[in-house]
């Protein structure tokens, strides 16, 4: 019995914070279950957002990505800017992180307007038959690229659209499927601290985090930073240094993936997502600062795989 081509995607996205007016990173997880279908193009669009492309230059890293096929994670690789077309559009391409091979053969563009990221499959001879395949792609988009709406309580959509073609010789079937997720911006209570950036957003237990924002107490002991645990009870981390606009704190032993919060004088901040890593493997990739000095933004850890602070 010959199975008809089909494609069943699921799409998860986590803005690292929903604080109105900030420019957080985004974590995407795309699961694909397909039969004899090959993805030609995938686009991710964020409406009501303001992209920042002016600081991008050739060589800038926009995102890190990896494939998980049959539950086996592959190495992360970088998507770097290859050409600046105009102030409102850049081209990027996949680059190998280790060795001479890479799993995600793609190039694409990042455009202003509604913050549109497009990934296109590089030309290659498609297989005669793929059969039924289940795979996942993890994508970590760098911070400072997309600014959320300025107004508090404003909803915005993130839409993923996939275009596919059948790989069977006796078929010429094209499919397009879209999935949308909706989010709403927030703001802390008056006088509460604001978490505007946390780095790195993914890492191990004991990681030293740098949190920037406002409303912090210069005395470290007066800032209560908490993390989520497996039973959803909040656990405190140790604040090692503090100023009005920056905290440095350690991730506690019991922490798991979930929101980080800071409370000062009983007033609690907005959430900022932190992802604990499981160290299943490692690659040598990191985000570079988008400046002529090309210094590292920060060591970046991606979900299940450690990303070293060494340059590409």
What does this structure look like?
By secondary structure, the protein is mostly beta strands. It folds into two domains: 6-184, Immunoglobulin-like, CATH 2.60.40; 194-307, Immunoglobulin-like (Sandwich). The chain is 0% helix and 53% strand. The protein is built from no helices and 28 strands. Strands 1, 2, 3, 5, 6, 7, 8, 9, 10, 11, 13 and 14 form a twelve-stranded antiparallel beta sheet that branches. Strands 16, 18, 19, 22, 23 and 24 form a six-stranded mixed beta sheet that branches. It starts with 5 loop residues before the first strand and ends in a 5-residue tail after the last strand. Mean pLDDT is 77; it is low at 97-102, 123-129 and 278-312.
Keywords:
six-stranded mixed beta sheet; mainly beta; Immunoglobulin-like; globular; 2 domains; 312 residues; disordered C terminus; twelve-stranded antiparallel beta sheet
Write the layout of secondary structure elements.
Blueprint: E1 6-15, E2 26-35, E3 37-46, E4 50-51, E5 61-69, E6 72-73, E7 77-86, E8 89-95, E9 106-111, E10 116-121, E11 132-141, E12 146-147, E13 155-166, E14 174-184, E15 194-199, E16 202-203, E17 208-214, E18 223-228, E19 234-236, E20 238-242, E21 246-250, E22 258-264, E23 267-268, E24 272-276, E25 282-283, E26 287-288, E27 296-298, E28 306-307
Parallel strand pairs: 16-24, 25-28
Antiparallel strand pairs: 1-2, 2-11, 3-10, 3-13, 4-12, 5-6, 5-7, 5-11, 7-8, 8-9, 9-10, 13-14, 15-17, 17-21, 18-19, 18-22, 20-21, 22-23, 22-24, 26-27
